[in-house]
Amino acid sequence: MAKQQRSLVGDETGCSGILVVGHHEAIPKMFGPFARRVRLRFLPGAVSTEPYASLGEVVHWHQFQSALHLLRKLRVRRIVFFELETLNQVALNAVARDAGITTVFCDHGIQDMQISQQVQRLGLGHAPTATPLLTRLVHARRRLLPAVGDRLFFVRSLLMAKRELAGFLRRYRDVRMASTIFDTYERIHEAHLYPTEYLCISARNYEFHRTMNHGWSDARVSYFGLPEFDELSGAAAERDPHAVLYVDQPYCHQQKYGWTPENKLAFLAQIARAVTERGFALLARPHPREGDFWKAHKVEIEALGIAVVADTDRLRAMRSAGVVLGFNSTLLLPLAASEDVAVFCLHMHPDPRFAPSPMFVDAGVAHWVHTDDDLVEALAPGNLHLTREEQNRHKATFIREWMYAFDGRCGERFEGLVLGTTP
Fold this sequence. Notes:
CATH architecture of the largest domain: 3-Layer(aba) Sandwich
Helix content: 40-55%
CATH topology of the largest domain: Rossmann fold
Number of strands: 13
Structural class: alpha/beta
Shape: elongated
């Protein structure tokens, strides 16, 4: 077995052979700064490969017969998982661990236990997206052979695994196919399921994984913060006290929590009325996955007096806004951490059963807004001044607990941890 492990583990003398598994919008920004200095490969799954092609080689499950074949072919020395729940992902993690290869789970975005428990309890979440039949047929035809290859990857990985490992993969398959990922973690507590290292944004995020995923506390844990917001740290912000930034979420695209294009447009009209009534200017930062909505309703949104923030202007808008509105986007973290920025969380989901995340409010760096009239009252000059003073008192603790650090060095820490050069 030792001989087989040496043949699978990549060259340890250089920082090469790193495979990144899973998809997230932040991955290109997180790996971009050091992509030219290391050999990166990306296995994003059934999503567009365009964001990753400029950073390294993109590979797919169907290109490999099994997890063992993938490891022999790519000779990876570290695997970084941004997702670790599908059959193929779990099989790759388990086989890599067994071969002595370091597997790392990388945290991304806000992990809120109260939201996850609420979604589980109420059965809320993603509804099937309505897609035209012809589009689905064309997509199905294009994906047919790759999809077969994807499924065969797990089957062959199971068949080629040692007896103990094969038993685990069968158990995981049987439970996962009939359960949510959280239920699966409650029922399976085997070491094969977990990574050898865990990279986390903050201590509060790690609490979520330790509680919900049962057993990750056995892995090595390191914190790095939020590299994508390093540019906002320590910047001499020119705050416009009359600029209000609305941070969007993809709930309409996901058909989540009762959101539809119609009630979202009505919601935007409500907050636009409240903001303009106080003489403020309303900026909106669309979520990347909500692009279709913002394009389809461009004329109506402009008529409401809302200025849409483009990708190229995102950081400038975040530096200048003196007031921020949102739900529980990761984008709220650096804004809530910034001095003299008043943050209001919108308790305004169409589905009344669902309460937005209280994490920002509980941390003292945000206040609730339940209606547009509440927002008008909150933006009154005297109220806004008191809100800023109160929230400023809690920002240092919030940064320490939810962001680890806001010092402009998160990217540096992330690079060292991913490459394994940090002790």
